[in-house]
Design goal:
Order of helices and strands: HEHEEEEHHHEEHHEEEHHHEEHH
Structural class: alpha+beta
Number of strands: 12
Number of domains: 1
Distance between the termini: 33 Å
C-alpha cells in the first residue's frame, strides 16, 4: 500500500518527461521550469483532523534499499538503507502544526568474498544528528546543509493540509515553487510521501495545543551476518520515537516504531535482495511481522510497542529512564504483562525525541 502511495505522489507530481526515483537525495540545484501540479489528486486527498484544542500525532516512513551496490574485485559493495521518517502534529482544521523530518542512511560494507566489513558494534547517526558533518553544504548550490533543507521543507509544510502537500508543485523530483526551491534544492518526493503518510496515520494520543513535537532515531547493524552456504544479511535496524511534550516536560502522546531492513547478498558480495521492494515498518507490518505466535504473552510487536508508548504518556523523560529493567526487559510485572520485548532501545530514542522537542 505504501509503495502505491509513493508511486501516486511521483506519477502525479513529477515531470511527464523525466522520472526521478522518489528516494534520491541530490545536492543539485532544483529546476523550476516545466512545473506540473498534481491537481487531479488534491480533491481526493484528506487526512484525520483533531478535536478542538487537541492535536493529532503522526509518523510516516518511506524506506528504500535501491542505492545498494554489488561488491567487485576492485571495490567493496554497499548494502544501503535510506529510511525517511516524518513526524507531524495536526490540528482541528487538518493542517500541520509542527513537522520534523530525518533520514537514517545506513551504509554497510560488503566484500567480494561475502563478508560484512563495517563495524557491527557501531551506531549510525541520522542525517539530522550528523548536522554539518554530513557534508552537503560544500556541494550545495544554495549553500545549505541537509538538515537545513529538511527544516525548510518542514517549515513550508506547517499550516498545510494533506491536499496541499499532495498537490505541491514538483519538477523532476525537486520543488517546483521558486521560493521553496531557494531553500530546498534536494529531492522532495520522499519528504512529501513521508509527510503525507504521517498525516494519514495521525491519531489522538493526548497531545494538546502548545505541546512540542519530538523525533528520535537510533540505528544499529549488529544482527548483520556474513554469507556462507546461505546468503549473508546486512541488517539496518532503526528504532523510532515520535512524541509530544507539554511545558512541564511531560510526554503527552507517544508513538514507537522500527524499520528492520534486511539486505541479502551472496558469497561474492552481490546484492540478492530485491532493491525495488518496499520496506514497511514494523507497525505497518502489524500481524504480518509474526511475533505473536512466538510471544510468551501472545502479543504482536506493534501491540507491545503501542503498550510501551502508552505507558510513557504522562511521564517525564527521567521517569521513563527510571523504569525498572532486568536484562533489557521491563521488570515490573504489570508492564511486562503487555511488553515482553526489550525496552532499552525504546528508552534511548524516547530520550532523543524529548531532547529534540523544542
Amino acid at each position: 500500500m505504501k509503495k502505491n502511495l509513493v508511486a501516486l505522489m511521483c506519477v502525479a507530481a513529477l515531470s511527464a518527461t523525466t522520472f526521478v526515483g522518489c528516494g534520491a537525495d541530490e545536492a543539485a540545484e532544483a529546476p523550476v521550469a516545466d512545473t506540473q501540479v498534481a491537481e487531479e489528486t488534491t480533491s481526493a486527498v484528506s487526512s484525520p483532523v483533531a478535536a478542538e484544542g487537541e492535536l493529532l500525532t503522526g509518523i510516516g516512513t518511506v524506506v528504500g534499499i535501491d542505492s545498494s551496490v554489488d561488491a567487485t574485485a576492485d571495490a567493496e559493495g554497499t548494502a544501503q538503507c535510506d529510511a525517511t521518517v516524518a513526524a507531524v502534529t495536526v490540528d482541528s482544521n487538518g493542517a500541520i502544526v509542527e513537522c520534523v523530518i530525518d533520514i537514517a542512511q545506513t551504509k554497510i560494507g560488503v566484500s567480494a568474498d561475502g563478508k560484512i566489513t563495517s563495524d557491527l558494534n557501531a551506531e549510525y547517526p541520522s542525517k539530522r544528528e550528523l548536522g554539518d558533518d554530513y557534508g552537503m553544504k560544500k556541494a550545495s548550490s544554495i549553500g545549505k546543509e541537509w538538515y537545513e533543507q529538511a527544516d525548510a521543507f518542514a517549515e513550508w509544510a506547517v499550516g498545510k493540509t494533506a491536499a496541499d502537500i499532495s498537490g505541491m508543485a514538483i519538477s523532476e523530483g525537486y520543488a517546483g515553487d521558486a521560493d521553496l526551491a531557494a531553500s530546498v534544492s534536494i529531492h522532495v518526493t520522499g519528504f512529501q510521501a513521508a509527510v503525507l503518510e504521517a498525516m494519514n496515520n495521525a491519531v489522538a494520543g493526548g497531545a494538546a495545543e502548545g505541546d512540542k513535537l519530538g523525533l528520535g532515531l537510533s540505528t544499529k547493524i549488529s544482527n548483520s551476518k556474513d554469507a556462507a552456504e546461505e546468503d549473508g544479511v546486512a541488517e539496518a535496524y532503526t528504532t523510532i520515537s515520535v512524541l509530544t511534550v507539554n511545558e512541564e516536560g511531560v510526554i503527552t502522546s507517544s508513538i514507537l516504531d522500527a524499520v528492520q531492513a534486511k539486505i541479502t547478498f551472496d558469497a561474492n558480495g552481490v546484492i540478492t535482495a530485491d532493491k525495488s521492494a518496499d520496506v514497511p515498518s514494523k507497525n505497518e507490518l502489524g500481524d504480518a511481522y509474526g511475533m505473536k505466535s512466538a510471544s510468551a504473552i501472545g502479543k504482536e510487536w506493534n501491540e507491545q510497542a503501542a503498550a510501551y508508548a502508552a505507558y510513557t504518556v504522562g511521564k517525564t523523560v527521567d521517569e521513563v529512564q527510571g523504569t525498572a529493567v532486568t536484562e533489557g526487559r521491563a521488570a515490573d510485572a504489570d508492564l511486562a504483562a503487555s511488553v515482553s520485548i526489550h525496552i532499552t532501545d525504546f528508552n534511548a530514542v524516547i530520550a532523543k525525541a524529548v531532547a529534540n522537542a523544542k
